Every structure is written in structure tokens, then in C-alpha cells.
């Protein structure tokens, strides 16, 4: 009998969609403290965690060194102290790329919603201002994606899918991918490399697709927001900590940033005092917020869960796990 502790809640674990071996004992937990998490792991061999919570810090790891695999059911693994896990020889794995198409589609939806003011139109009509908003939007001069310059920060699984869809829509796409240029991918996707500063200054829409790590925490701060083209849009479906929320709120207030779509917050769920949730009505109309659902589709959830369970099965069967992120 293999005991798997799932911090992935039962309501997100659709057993009818995946194959779970009969001799596995999957125990669902919803720990509110480190102590609870450690205690729950005492008898377990494997730990299954969603990509965004709970935090698996050094203290937790030191108390669960018997765990044979920590499996993130997602692309991200930033809530896990992977370095300490490596020192303690606890492998951590993710399921890369499985929700990339879902995030990419959602991102394109946000791009069009921001550029065409879809949510603003919806609010105004429901508030009885059909004629007024129709006139305003006619006069505003809304753009097609084809006429837009789009900057992607991060050209991994998600960034590449976004670029592929944008190419079919005729957009002009540039990217910044940190340490390196990707000549083959550039040719395939017809995207051009820019420095971060140039990308921010030249894009009508900037969309973030980098993992949260030491190089990306605070990557889009006050200075970078000021570099963005006046009236341009920012989309963050990556992680909240990559963007300075206070600076973004200020830029939305002044209208210097034309609009933003935010799927991820610091922390999650956001606190009531979060500056992005306390904007003036005018600035609020420039902001679309969603509850970390860019990757949430039935297909993506099924693929991520299945790949995660298969990875645990590999270890049970004496094979090394796939997609280890902390060698
Ligand atoms: N909102 C949601 O529901 C979801 C959010 N996400 C978030 O999106 C992130 C990206 O996912 P995915 O595309 O699958 O991940 P990938 O690892 O495939 O791609 C990330 C890319 O970002 C690059 N990168 C790393 N550091 C930097 C940097 N400092 N500056 C610029 N580029 C950098 C990586 O380069 P290199 O390979 O060289 O490190 C890589 O090309 C996830 O880590 C997760 O946080 C993911 C899924 C769902
Ligand atoms: O896969 C990820 O990293 C996610 O954030 C899914 O919610």
C-alpha cells in the first residue's frame, strides 16, 4: 500500500478523469499550519501539491525527509523551497506544459477583452448607459490584434503557445527570455528578441510568462512600468510577486497604464487592502481581475493530474521520477 498525501483538495481531484491504482491510499488534507502539514505527512511516502499552495518551506522539509517525491500538479513550483529539498535529497517534480494551451487561450482572451474594452461595455450597459458607452467606445479608437505590437516576457511553454496564436492573428510579436536568445524558436514562431527595456517601451500589450524565481521577483517594478508605452496594457497570468502591485495600482490611477489583467496576486487570495482591489471607479474600469484560473480547464486539470500520478507510479515501480526541478 502506497500512501499519497494530497494537499490538492478533493474537489479539484476528479478521480473519474484519471487512473488511480487500487493499492494507493490517497489522503486529502487542507493544512492551515506547518505542523498540520508535517503531521499529515508522517505516514506518507508521496506528497501531491497544487502549484500555488501550501508553502513547503525548509522547516517543513526537514520534518518530512522520508517523502520520496514531492509532486507539483502544475507548471509552477515556487512555493516549494527546492534548494533545501535538494540538500535533503527530496526530489521535487512538476508537470511542465500540460496547462500551457489553457493559459495561452486565456491570455489571448484577456488581450482582446482589454483592447476592445469588453468588460467596460458590459458594466456600462448593465448600469443603463448603452448609448453613452457605445459613443465612447466608437470615439476611443479600439485596435485589432493584427495592428498591435505584443511583447512576451518569457518564451517557454506558455509564451510559445501565445506567440503561435498571435501569429495566426497577424500580430507583431517580440519576446524577452532572460538569459538567452532562442534563434530556432524565433524563426519558427516569427518573433523577434528585444531587451526587456525595449520590449516594454515598444509594446501595446505586455504579457508575462516567466516562473517566479530570484531573477523574476519584482521584475516589473515602478521603473519598468514607467518604461511601458503610455496607454499600453499589462497582463499577468504568471505569479503575483513578479509585478509591484502598488506601483501598478498607481499607474492605473493616473491612466499611464491603459489597462491591466491580473490572474495572480500577492498573496493569494488577495487581502482586502490589496491596492489593486481599492482603486477609484475610473481606474477600476481599467483592470480585469480573475482568481488564478488561467490554466483551469477540464482538459488541463486531467492532463496535469494524470501526469502527476504517473510520475508517482514511476517511483513506486523503482524508476527515477520525470521532470525533477531540483537536481
Ligand atoms: N495562472 C495560471 O493558472 C498559471 C500560471 N503559470 C505560471 O506561468 C509560468 C510559466 O509557465 P511555462 O511557460 O509553462 O514555464 P516554462 O518554464 O516553460 O517557461 C518559462 C520561460 O521563462 C524563462 N525565464 C526564466 N527566468 C526568466 C527571466 N528572469 N526573464 C525572462 N525569462 C525568464 C525561462 O527560460 P529558462 O528555461 O532559460 O529558464 C522559460 O523560457 C509558471 O512558472 C507559472 O508560474 C503556469 C500555469 C498556469
Ligand atoms: O501550473 C501552475 O503553475 C499554476 O499556477 C496552475 O494553477
Automatic annotation (TrEMBL):
KW NAD (keyword) present:
yes
Q: EC number(s) for this protein?
A: 1.1.1.81
Key word NAD present: yes
Any idea where the D-isomer specific 2-hydroxyacid dehydrogenase catalytic domain is? 24-326
List, for all copies, the residue spans of the domain called D-isomer specific 2-hydroxyacid dehydrogenase NAD-binding.
Answer: 108-294
- Select a single GO molecular function from the record's annotations and give it: hydroxypyruvate reductase [NAD(P)H] activity
Q: Which Pfam families match?
A: 2-Hacid_dh, 2-Hacid_dh_C
**Keywords carried by this UniProt record:** NAD, Oxidoreductase
| Matches recorded under InterPro entries | D-iso_2-hydroxyacid_DH_PdxB, D-isomer_2_OHA_DH_cat_dom, D-isomer_DH_CS, D-isomer_DH_NAD-bd, NAD(P)-bd_dom_sf
Classification via SUPFAM superfamilies: Formate/glycerate dehydrogenase catalytic domain-like, NAD(P)-binding Rossmann-fold domains
Domain of life of the organism in this record?
A: Bacteria
| PANTHER family the record matches | D-ISOMER SPECIFIC 2-HYDROXYACID DEHYDROGENASE CATALYTIC DOMAIN-CONTAINING PROTEIN-RELATED (PTHR43761:SF1), D-ISOMER SPECIFIC 2-HYDROXYACID DEHYDROGENASE FAMILY PROTEIN (AFU_ORTHOLOGUE AFUA_1G13630) (PTHR43761)
The record's family statement is: Belongs to the D-isomer specific 2-hydroxyacid dehydrogenase family.
Q: What is the protein's name according to its record?
A: Hydroxypyruvate reductase
Amino acid at each position: 500500500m502506497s500512501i499519497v498525501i494530497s494537499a490538492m483538495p478533493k474537489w479539484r481531484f476528479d478521480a473519474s478523469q484519471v487512473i488511480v491504482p487500487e493499492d494507493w491510499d490517497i489522503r486529502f488534507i487542507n493544512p492551515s499550519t506547518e505542523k498540520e502539514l508535517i503531521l499529515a505527512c508522517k505516514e506518507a511516502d508521496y506528497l501531491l501539491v497544487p502549484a500555488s499552495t501550501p508553502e513547503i518551506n525548509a522547516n517543513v522539509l526537514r520534518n518530512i525527509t522520508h517523502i520520496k517525491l514531492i509532486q507539483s500538479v502544475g507548471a509552477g513550483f515556487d512555493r516549494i523551497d527546492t534548494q533545501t529539498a535538494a540538500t535533503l535529497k527530496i526530489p521535487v517534480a512538476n508537470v511542465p506544459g500540460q496547462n500551457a494551451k489553457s493559459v495561452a487561450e486565456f491570455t489571448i482572451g484577456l488581450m482582446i477583452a482589454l483592447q476592445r474594452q469588453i468588460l467596460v461595455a458590459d458594466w456600462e450597459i448593465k448600469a443603463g448607459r448603452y448609448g453613452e458607452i457605445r459613443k465612447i467606445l466608437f470615439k476611443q479608437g479600439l485596435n485589432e490584434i493584427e495592428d498591435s505590437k505584443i511583447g512576451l516576457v518569457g518564451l517557454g511553454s506558455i509564451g510559445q503557445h501565445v506567440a503561435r496564436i498571435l501569429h495566426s492573428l497577424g500580430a507583431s510579436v517580440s519576446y524577452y527570455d532572460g538569459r538567452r536568445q532562442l534563434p530556432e524558436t524565433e524563426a519558427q514562431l516569427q518573433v523577434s528578441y528585444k531587451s526587456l527595456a525595449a520590449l516594454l517601451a515598444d509594446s501595446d500589450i505586455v504579457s508575462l510568462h516567466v516562473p517566479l524565481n530570484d531573477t523574476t521577483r519584482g521584475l516589473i517594478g515602478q521603473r519598468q512600468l514607467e518604461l511601458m508605452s503610455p496607454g499600453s496594457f499589462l497582463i499577468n497570468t504568471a505569479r503575483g510577486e513578479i509585478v509591484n502591485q502598488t506601483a501598478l495600482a498607481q499607474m492605473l490611477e493616473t491612466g499611464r497604464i491603459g489597462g491591466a489583467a491580473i490572474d495572480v496576486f500577492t498573496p493569494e487570495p488577495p487581502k482586502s487592502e490589496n491596492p489593486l482591489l481599492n482603486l477609484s471607479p475610473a481606474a477600476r474600469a481599467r483592470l480585469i481581475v480573475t482568481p488564478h484560473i488561467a490554466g483551469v480547464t477540464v482538459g488541463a486539470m486531467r492532463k496535469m493530474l494524470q501526469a502527476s500520478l504517473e510520475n508517482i507510479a514511476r517511483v513506486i515501480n523503482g524508476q527515477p521520477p520525470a521532470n525533477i526541478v531540483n537536481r
